[in-house]
Design brief:
The chain is 36% helix and 22% strand. It is of the alpha/beta class. It binds S-adenosylmethionine (SAM).
């Protein structure tokens, strides 16, 4: 397992595949353990780095992960096979916004795909979260640009960062969730659904 993780880190760096920062995945793995999370939905698998680390937290943790890029999806499948997690991880090759889920709930959803689409992912997949489940979103700092979008010269970067700033406001103002922002890695948002039956 250790060797596979190191190989995946090298592959990501050689092929310019964005993967989660170590501090962030360590935080998420601890969160999964502390909250006894069993069923996870991940939006944005890339090559399966975070997928495999989350699935490896405990023998009964299962992850469904969605990836739209074919080369990354194939690499992810290969890595899942290599660690023997075929029974724990389901990899879906599709645009997450087109995926049809039914009769399933997850106790954690990890949003780590196209950052400009975060609100869309949140609004689509929240219906598949358990009543007290958690949605975690990565890159809330976006390499230090978040909070400074008006100063960015590049139009496309400025618009992307503005979308992340909009997402953070959306989370903060969302009365159905309690959101905490963590200055870990590239910034994590942890949004816990308020259980109205409690
Ligand atoms: N979670 C991965 C990890 O930490 O190892 C990294 C994921 S990477 C930051 C984001 C991935 O999301 C990319 O591989 C990209 O192709 C994928 N992606 C972006 N938008 C998507 C969408 N709408 N549906 C499915 N995958 C998407």
């Amino acid at each position: 397992m250790k060797e596979l993780i190191l190989d995946m880190e090298s592959y990501a760096s050689e092929h310019n595949v964005p993967i989660i920062e170590k501090d962030s995945i360590t935080f998420i793995m601890k969160y999964i353990k502390a909250h006894n999370i069993k069923n996870i939905l991940e939006i944005g698998s890339a090559i399966g780095y975070s997928t495999i680390l989350m699935a490896g937290v405990a023998p009964d943790v299962k992850v469904t992960t969605i990836e739209r890029d074919e080369a990354r999806y194939m690499e992810c499948l290969k890595n899942v096979k290599r660690c023997g997690f075929e029974n724990k991880i389901t990899v879906v090759f599709q645009d997450a916004l087109d995926v049809n889920l039914s009769n399933v709930t997850y106790d954690m959803i990890f949003i780590d795909a196209a950052k400009a689409q975060n609100i869309k992912f949140f609004e689509k997949f929240k219906y598949f979260l358990t009543s007290d489940g958690t949605i975690i979103s990565d890159n809330m700092k976006f390499h230090g640009y978040v909070g400074k979008s008006s100063e960015i010269e590049s139009k496309s970067l400025r618009s992307l960062v503005a979308k992340i700033e909009e997402y953070i406001e959306f989370l903060k103002n969302n009365k159905e969730y309690d959101t905490n922002l963590y200055d870990i890695g590239d910034g994590l948002a942890v949004s816990v659904r308020k259980n109205e039956s409690k």
